[in-house]
Amino acid sequence: MRLWRAFLATATVLASGAPAAMAQSSVTPMPARATRFADKPAIAFGTAWYPEQWPESRWDADLAWMKEAGFNTVRIAEFAWSTMEPREGEFHFEWLDRAIAAARRHGIMVVLGTPTAAPPAWLTQKYPDVLRVDEDGTRATHGGRRQFSFASQRYRDFARRIATKMAQRYGNNPDIVGWQIDNEIGPPSFGKEAISRWHAFLKERYGSIDNLNQRWATEYWSQHYNDFDQIPLHATGQQNPALLLDFKHFTTATWTDYVMNQASAIRAHADPRQFITTNTMFWNGGFDHFKLHRGLDLAAWDNYIQDADPDWVANGADHDLVRGYKQRNFWLMETQAGRVDWVPVNRALKPGQVREMGWQAIAHGADAILYWELRPARNGQETYYGTVLGQDGTPAPIFDEIAKLGSEIRKASDALADTNPVYRMAMLFSYDSRWAIDLQRLHKDFDPIDEFTDFYRPFRNGSQGVAVLSPSADLSAYPLVVAPALNVMTQEEADHLSAYVRAGGNLVLGPRSGMKDDADALWPERQPGPLQPLLGARVEQFYALDEPVQLAGDFGEGEASIWAEWLKPQSKDVRIRARYADPGGWLDGKPAIVSRKVGKGSITYIGAWLEPAAMRDVAQQLMDDAGVRPMIPNVPEGVEIGERSGAGKHILIAINHGDSPKPVAIPANALPVAGEVANDMLRGHGVAVFRVPAGN
Ligand code: GAL
C-alpha cells in the first residue's frame, strides 16, 4: 500500500487563519522510514516555501492553504544558509525541524535544498577567496546569490560541511523525500584556483602537451604551448575555438564534482530512498547536462515562460531533453504561478495556461510539479514575482486554477502511477555540437537550439512522442533517430550510430553533421566525416544563405534558408531525394537530401535548414518510411497529444494550447480520468485525460 497516499488522505490540521475546510484535526502517524520511491504520491505537487522568511506563527496557515491547493510536497531550506549557520560553525536546525514537522502535520512531504547558492556574509567576508571571479577579473560581492567560485576548495569544504550536517540530521527522516543540491548552478569562475584546476583538467584530458598542441592545431597563429601552465582560461574572445570548447568540458567537469561533493556527503548519511538531484535551467549551455546527471538519481528543472506566450512545442522539447538526461521521469522543481519578473514586460499567463502547462509537463514525463513560490517575501529581489498566495497569506487569483489541477492530479494519481511517456522515435541533442556551432556560426542566425526545435516540431507533431537523447544513448528501441546538426561527432559516436543503422535503424542527420571531432578540429574527411562511408555521399560545400533557396524532390517543394549544403553521392545506391533550384547560384541542381539503404536500416542526410512547411513534409515522409505513426492521427493545429504507459496502463493526455475550441478524436472506449471533452470538442486551453483499454 502507498503509505504516503493513505496518510495524505487522512491528515488534516487546525491552523489559525487557515482555510475553513482545514479546521479539524486528525493526524496519522508517519511510517518510521524515508518515503523514497516506495511510499510517495505518484505525482508530487507543491511549491517552494521559505519558512525562514515568516514568523513561525504563520506557518500552519500557509501549510493549510497548501493543502487546500492539493499540494503534497514542499521544497524548503535552499537559500537558508545564514539561518542554519548564522556564524561559522554555529548550527541552528531547530527551526527546520519544526518546519518539517509542521509540513508533516499537514500531510506534506519535503524536499530539502542545500543552501549553497547563497553563502552567508560571514563566509564571504572572512574568506574572500571563495568568491567568484568574472572573466574580466572582477570579484563578486555579497548581496546577490551564486557569488561563490565553483573551483574554490574552501567553499566546497564549507558546502560539504553544511550538507553533511543536514544529511546527518534529516537523512533518515521519513518526511524527507529527496534532496536538491544548490540552485541553478551555472556561472563559472576565472580566479586562481579555477586556473589551476583548468591546467590539471587539460593535463588529464590530453596526457601530454604535445598531444594538446596537435589536437588544437596550435601551429596556427603561433599558439604552440610548451607547458600546460601557459594556457589561458577563457570562455569568450578571440581564442582558439578548441580552447573555448574545452572550456565547456572544463565547466562540465568542475560543476559535476562541485555537485558530487555535496551528493556524496548526503549519500553517506541518507536513506537511499531519498533521491538526490539538482535543479537546472532549460537550455542552459553552461555545462553538459547529460554528463552532470550521471551521478544523480533523477533530473529536475525549472520551467519559466519568458514572455508568457508559450511556444508549447518548444516547451515540450525542453521537457523531453530533461527526461533524456537520465532517461527516467523527472521533477519539475519550479514553475511559474502566473508571471515571472525578469523580462521587459512580465505579463501573466492566460487563464487556463498554468493548468495546461502542468498537464503538459506530466505528459512529457514529469512526476512532480512545484510552483515558485508560495508567497512573496516582504522584501528582496523578487517581490514582484507571480505567487500562489499574496503577501497577506491569502490566495492570489491563480490559486483556484492551481487547486483545480491539484484535484485532477489526485484523481489521476492511480492511473499515472508507474507510467512513463510513450516514445515513437528519438532525436539526439549534443552539447558539444551546440557549443561548436555557437563558437563559429558562419551565419548569425544559425542558432543550434532554434535549428533543433525546427526539426523537433514536425517530428513531435507527427509522432506524438519524441525521446531526446545523447548521441551515445542506447537507440535500439527507436525505429527512427534524427540528429539535427550533429556537428561534433567522435569516432565512437559514429561507430555507435553505424551499428544502429546496421541493426535496422533509420538515422537522419541534419546540416553541419559530422564535421568536427571533440577537440573542435575538422575531420580530415568532409562531412559527415566518420559517417561518410556509411552514407556513401559527402558534403561538397556548405553555404550560408542570405536569402532562401528553393528545393524540390520526392517530398514536394519548398524552401531552405540560413544554411544549405551541396551533397555529392559517391555510391551508386545513394538516392537523391531532393535538389536545389538556385538559378545562377552554386547550389543550382545540386542534391539537398540523400538517403541510402543499409540492410534493413537507412541513413539520410538533410543538407539544409528547411522552412517549416518543407520540414513538415520531409519529416512526414521519413516517419512514413520508418513506420512511425501517432496514437491519434490528424490532430488539429494547437492540440497536443501525450501518452504515458506502464504497469499495464495506457494514459492519453489531450491538451488544447489554443484559445478556441478544437475537435479531438478520442478513442470511443477511452475512460475519462480528469479534465473535460464535450461532444468531441476540447475547449480553448482545455485538458482531457483518459485511460485507454488494452487493444487500442
Ligand atoms: C529560478 C530560481 C528561483 C527564483 C525563480 C524566479 O531561476 O531557482 O530561486 O529566483 O527563478 O524566476
TrEMBL record:
Domain Beta-galactosidase trimerisation residues, every copy: 425-628
Keywords, in A-Z order: Glycosidase, Hydrolase, Metal-binding, Signal, Zinc
InterPro entries: Beta_galactosidase_Trimer (IPR013738), Glyco_hydro_42 (IPR003476), Glyco_hydro_42_N (IPR013529)
Limits of the Glycoside hydrolase family 42 N-terminal domain: 49-411
Enzyme category, top tier: hydrolase
Cleaved signal peptide residues: 1-23
Reaction(s) the record says it catalyses: Hydrolysis of terminal non-reducing beta-D-galactose residues in beta-D-galactosides
Family: Belongs to the glycosyl hydrolase 42 family.
Protein name: Beta-galactosidase
Organism field: Stakelama flava
